[in-house]
UniProtKB/TrEMBL annotation:
CDD domains: AdoMet_MTases. This is tRNA (uracil(54)-C(5))-methyltransferase. It comes from Petrolisthes manimaculis. One of its GO terms (molecular function) is tRNA (uracil(54)-C5)-methyltransferase activity, S-adenosyl methionine-dependent. Its EC number is 2.1.1.35.
Length: 521
């Protein structure tokens, strides 16, 4: 049976602090604080010290005789692609299913952690080099650093948690390796691949045991149910998936998704009553759920308005703590997948933005307001904008929960709300904007509106996939090209500093925090 090795717990000395005390005189770096000196962002010279120290440490690691051959042959600085989107070359069997699932969900799980974050830093370097090339082609006023990047790049800041860090998991339902159509877990292979199977999360090292237990319990429940699994909308079936959320304090929420097909309201109520009996009176009570919801959704995804979330039993929400603030998490609330990692992420944002009591923070795509609320004690005030009305309501509730009075939230499209705020923002001393969009990035008209809002002097762009659609956003922010009504006439934003944050240990993903500053004419 596959069980991942635990050799990733390698100390991070060389990445962040080892040998730097004399060179940097105690500036704050990824692994912690060494005394109290230099300012963040770091200068390029200080970053060069970090780079040199890292290379020295890696050399000492690879020179160890018992590990050299294995590390050099197995792990090189290149991207490892997960199996999820590649055709399966062999059938998935009972013996190898967990190995294949590990390659899909945690492709770096057997790699020493210092190599994981080094690898992610190299990936970010490639992203920034490509960005520099695109910006120069777009006539953006950008300069190269000593290592050919458009801005200084800090070493990857590691996650405080390496194991069981995911606070949310969505488990699908499909055929397992034994042919059972009611297997709960994650898919290996493409939906169009006849070899695709669903594998339980039994040995995944980034998934919490409580989530695994709930998935296993739900699988047992639906296998006893007379209703079929819904693999495709056009083939019928009821059970679609289950989403599990939990907090650092141990609170647990589960949301069961079904396809209602032609069910009556009474039939749906009977399913809810049966789920309540199972999870709060029967075998499923061992999961100790604090909250259980059901959503009857006919589409791939449904908003609250399209299909309301029905509370079956328990609390309306669970409460998470992040940087000493409390956040109420509803079934569809956005919250960073790694809570401790989010603390590192938000701290990095505050440091490189260099906010002060005279700063007005503009939080575009604010979601449930986590960034606004975390930053509010350090700025004059925050203004959050999001197109999802329910998310804005959650943000307001979280502000009230934490007794924060210098926050405002507006529901609507950024390109419509921003112009209405333009005059008020113009009277502010310093305006810093933050965007943390989905992987699809921002629409072009949002980028254009940000550039037209002259009060914004700095922009922090947080992206979990900077090589994707976000890259086009970066280029549009700095471009001096365009034709007709799309010709850029406003002052551009150019990258000034970048910080990768490892929010997803053992995967090939990381968050990139990129500081842009407006070019002063």
């Amino acid at each position: 049976m596959f069980r991942p090795k635990r050799n990733y717990l390698v100390p991070l000395y060389g990445l962040v602090v080892r040998g730097l005390k004399e060179q940097t005189k105690g500036f704050k770096v990824a692994g912690g604080t060494v005394a109290e000196a230099a300012k963040i962002p770091l200068t390029e010279e200080q970053l060069q010290f970090l780079e040199a120290d890292l290379q020295t440490y890696e050399k000492t690691q690879t020179e160890r005789p018992k590990r050299t051959a294995t590390l050099k042959s197995k792990f090189t600085i290149k991207s490892i692609k997960p199996e999820r989107n590649t055709p399966l070359s062999e059938p998935i069997t009972f013996e190898n299913q967990h190995h294949h699932l590990s390659n899909v969900i945690t492709p770096y799980c057997e790699m020493p952690y210092f190599k994981q974050i080094r690898l992610k830093e190299e990936q970010m370097k490639r992203v920034l080099r490509f960005l520099g090339k695109r910006l120069r082609e777009a006539k953006a006023p950008v300069e190269k650093t000593m290592i050919g990047l458009p801005c200084p790049l800090e070493p990857t800041r590691p996650s405080p948690n390496l194991l069981d860090y995911r606070n949310k998991d969505e488990f699908g339902i499909h055929f397992g390796v034994d042919g059972n159509p009611k297997t709960v877990g994650f898919f290996v292979g493409k939906p169009t691949d006849p070899k695709m199977v669903c594998v339980p999360p039994t040995y995944l090292i980034n998934t919490r045991d409580s989530h695994k237990q709930i998935a296993k319990s739900f699988q047992k429940y639906i296998r006893q149910s007379p209703y079929d699994a819904c693999h495709r909308f056009d083939t019928g079936g009821t059970w679609r998936n289950i989403l599990v959320r939990s907090t650092q304090g141990g609170e647990k929420m589960a949301i069961v998704y079904i396809h209602p097909q032609n069910m009556s309201r009474d039939e749906i109520k009977e399913i809810m009553a049966d789920l309540k009996r199972y999870y709060f009176e029967g075998e499923g009570s061992e999961c100790e759920l604090d909250s259980l919801y059901l959503q009857a959704c006919k589409n791939t995804r449904c908003t609250r308005e399209q299909a309301p979330y029905h509370l079956i039993h328990g609390k309306n929400y669970i409460t998470e703590t992040c940087l000493d603030l409390s956040f109420q998490i509803s079934p569809d609330s956005f919250f960073q997948i790694n809570t401790r990692g989010a603390e590192v992420l938000y701290s990095a944002v505050r440091e490189i933005a260099e906010v002060s009591p005279i700063t007005t923070l503009l939080d575009i795509c604010c979601g449930t307001g986590s960034i606004s609320l975390v930053m509010s004690p350090h700025v004059r005030g925050t203004v959050g904008i999001d197109v999802v009305t329910e998310a804005v309501e959650d943000a307001k509730n979280n502000a009230t929960l934490n007794n924060l009075v210098n926050t405002q939230f507006f529901a609507g499209k950024a390109e419509k709300v921003l112009p209405k705020l333009a005059q008020d923002l113009k009277d502010c001393t310093e305006v810093v904007a933050i965007v943390n969009p989905a992987r699809s990035g921002l629409q072009q008209n949002v980028i254009r509106t940000i550039r037209q809002c002259e009060a914004i002097t700095k922009l922090i762009y947080i992206s979990c996939k900077p090589e994707g659609y976000a890259m086009e956003n970066f280029v549009k922010l700095g471009s001096l090209q365009g034709k007709g009504k799309y010709k850029e006439t406003t002052a551009p934003f150019v990258p000034k500093y970048a910080v990768p944050v490892d929010m997803f240990p053992h995967t090939n993903h990381a968050e990139l925090v990129l500081l842009f500053e407006r070019v002063q004419s």
